[in-house]
Automatic annotation (TrEMBL):
This is Reverse transcriptase Ty1/copia-type domain-containing protein. The lineage of its organism: Eukaryota, Fungi, Dikarya, Basidiomycota, Agaricomycotina. Pfam families: RVT_2. SUPFAM superfamilies: DNA/RNA polymerases. Residues 1-177 form the Reverse transcriptase Ty1/copia-type domain. It comes from Ganoderma sinense ZZ0214-1. It comes from the Eukaryota. InterPro entries: DNA/RNA_pol_sf (IPR043502), RVT_2 (IPR013103).
Length: 419
């Protein structure tokens, strides 16, 4: 969506009817004759499947292989860095069309509206499809265009979640969770009813967070760590997140096509703030068109021995995502310079820019030194930002109202009228 806004691409959608049934099977699979389709006199025999069926574990892969082969014959190139992306370049002028495919949903994106329509029509001749016209929705995310801005939200799904949880008319909360709240592990055993209800709520919130709500990242991932054995307090706090959504259900990610900021990345990490595990919680985001399109908040797998180490590990994790995006853009034909990667710890920045071994950092796992290679290859440019001005802080802890509301717009998340 960020590229579509910046390049002013036309976006057209479709979905393939019964997509999995097109998948060709490479292996021999047999099944018993189903009720109503048994052949008289041959009831003891079995059928051999020639095509995939819904419910077959190979169905998804079979459809992807069949689609990929067909797209190649139609002149598309599948990207190495994302197997769900295909590009078509017109020989006469190099005009580009990007096709995004997720299972049976597809978006055709390009500047030339006639070329997009032509390629989409060719695709629909090959497969039985439902033409969705100008894209208004994709994977339950609503797409709205106003001028050179693209708004992305999940309001319809969000309201279903609130209704299912009985929170539609709840009193709105100003932040996802209370400032400084840290969930305590359950010392007993959750009832099956509590576990089931909690997992349903958390699963729904995770889908919202991964789609269009980076402001929920820390709160939801922190509570998700207790999904196997929750307490009533955990459930209460999950519903607190729902109360926050009641007051922000109209918010959307806003990709601004007039933005001149380019691709930027920001990281942060707390240090051992969880008194039960002492694992640090880092987070990072990548922005394009002045809006986040990739974000992460998750506990580190190893215990950091200092704040510098925790921040260094966070920057290394972020740099891996930057490399993937950098390579993806290169495949699309966009060659960019160094990506600004910010952090608020001078020590971690020094280690990342200088391949030196010191007594306080020599124990750091070699995998985290990947950031040095990325910096030396000219992919990132690491720089310092004051902690009070670091929006990635929103991914590392439950902030108070003033600070949370200060950083939220930096994610590109706005109430549409204020965007």
């Amino acid at each position: 969506m960020a590229l579509a806004a910046l390049e002013d691409w036309h976006i057209s959608g479709l979905d393939v009817r019964s997509a999995y049934l097109y998948g060709k099977l490479d292996e021999e699979i047999y099944l018993e004759q189903p009720e109503g389709f048994r052949i008289p006199g041959s009831e003891h025999k079995v059928f051999r499947l020639k095509r995939a069926l819904y419910g077959l574990k190979q169905a998804g892969l079979a459809w992807w292989r069949t689609l990929s082969e067909s797209m190649k014959l139609m002149g598309y190139k599948r990207l190495t860095n994302d197997a769900g992306l295909y590009i078509y370049k017109r020989h006469s002028d190099g005009e580009l069309v990007v096709v995004i495919v997720y299972v049976d949903d597809a978006l055709f994106c390009g500047r030339d509206k006639k070329l997009v329509a032509l390629l989409k029509a060719r695709f629909m001749k090959k497969w039985e499809c439902r033409d969705l016209g100008d894209a208004k929705e994709f994977l339950r995310m609503r797409i709205t265009r106003i001028g050179r801005k693209i708004f992305l939200d999940q309001r319809a799904y969000l309201e279903k979640v609130l209704d299912r949880c009985g929170m539609m008319n709840a009193r709105p909360a100003l932040t996802p969770l209370p400032a400084g709240y840290i969930p305590a592990p359950n010392t007993g055993q959750a009832t099956p009813e509590l576990r089931s209800r909690y997992q349903k709520v958390i699963g729904s919130l995770l889908y919202l967070m991964l789609g269009t709500r980076p402001d929920l990242a820390f709160a939801v991932t922190k509570l998700a760590q207790h999904a196997a054995n929750p307490t009533e307090d955990h459930l209460s706090k999950a519903l607190h997140i729902c109360r926050y959504l009641v007051g922000t259900k109209n918010y959307a990610l806003v990709y601004n096509g007039d933005s001149q900021l380019g691709l930027i990345a920001g990281t942060d990490s707390d240090w051992a703030s969880d008194p039960y595990t002492r694992r640090s919680q880092p987070g990072f985001m990548l922005k394009l068109a002045n809006c986040a399109f990739s974000w992460v908040s998750r506990a580190q797998k190893t215990i950091a021995l200092s704040s510098t180490e925790a921040e260094y590990m966070a920057m290394s994790d972020c740099s891996r995502q930057v490399v993937w995006v950098h390579n993806l853009l290169a495949e699309l034909g966009y060659h960019i310079g160094r990506v600004p990667l910010s952090g608020d710890n001078q020590g971690s920045i020094h280690i990342g820019q200088n391949p030196v071994t010191e007594s306080r950092s020599k124990h750091i796992d070699i995998r985290y030194h990947y950031i040095r290679e990325v910096y030396d290859r000219g992919i990132t440019d690491i720089f310092y930002v004051e902690g009070t001005n670091n929006p990635a802080d929103i991914f590392t802890k439950n902030l108070g109202t003033v600070k949370f509301h200060h950083f939220r717009p930096y994610l590109g998340l706005h109430f549409p009228k204020a965007a």
